[in-house]
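Deliverable D4.2, example record:
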Amino acid sequence: MGYNISETSGNTTGGPSDWAQTLDLSDPSATSVSGDFDVVPLFGGGSPSEATDGYAFSAVSNPGYGTLVTNATTGEYTFIVDRSAVITSGTDQVITFTVTGTSGGSSDEDTVTITILICVARGTLIETPDGPLPVETLSVGDRVVTLDGPPQPVRWIGSRHLTQQDLACTPTLRPIRITADALGPGVPSRDLLVSPQHRVLLDGWRAELFLAEPQVLVPAKMLVNDRSITVDHEVTEVEYFHLLFDSHQIILTEGLATESFFPGDHAMDELDRAVRDEIVQLFPQLSDPASYGDPARPSLRTWEARVLMGSERAGP
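Output generated by the structure prediction step:
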C-alpha cells in the first residue's frame, strides 16, 4: 500500500495513525471538535485526495458524552459534546473512535482520541432558592440557601485555577473526592470535589460525645479514608471557587453541608495580593481578618478530627 490516510484539517496533533484533540469546557463556547481525513501518498509525488472507496467510522467509545457526525465520502467528522453530561460526571473524559479509509482495494485505519477537560470544581451544584445551580453560573448578589437562616446574597466570588504542572509541583493541593452517599444517603448526591482545606459539616452522637459539640467543621483532607473519600490523583487540572457572604455560612454543595469562604488569617494569606486587595475593598474591616466574625461552627483541630473519624470507622 503506497498511502496512509491522515487527518489533514490541522485541528489535531499526532499521527501517522493516532490523532489527538482537546475540548476544554471551561470555555462556554466549546461545543464540538472536527476534522477531515484524506489519502496521503507515502512517498510524495501527489497531493492529498479522497479515498476512492470511502471511509468507515466506528462508534465512539462512550456515546453518553456526545454525538459523532461523519461523512463517509469526504472523511469529515464532527464530535458534538454533551456538556451537561460531562460536567455532571465530575471529571475529565476521553472519547475514542476509529476511521478506516479504503482506496484501490487497500485500507488503512487510524484512531482519534478526544480529551474533554473540565475544571472539576465547575458544575458543582449549589442550592439556591431557584434550585441547584452550577457554582460557575452564580453572580454577586445571587442568593444562596444557608443552613442557619434565610438565603443570603453572595458578596464576592473568587476562583483559583491549578494546572497539571501546579498539581504536580504541589500535590497537597490535589482535590479531595467525596463520592456520592459517602456521608449518608444522598450526602453528597453526586461525587463532589473540594480543596483539601475546605471544611465539611459533620454532626451526630460522636461529635457530641467526643467533642461536646452537636456540629463541627472538618477539613476535607481529614475525612480521607481511601474508600469513599480519597485524594483524586486522576484529574489533570482543577479550579476552586470561593463564595463570600456578609458572615460565615453553611451552604449546600451537592446536598452536602459545607462552609462558605472564611477570610481568616490563614485563608487570606493563601490568596494573591490582588485578590486580598479586592476583598478588603469590599470589606474594609478585613484589613484585620479577625473583624469578620466567628466561624459558623467550631472547627476541629487535627487531633480532634482523628478522634472523630476514628470513631466513625469503628462504628457504633
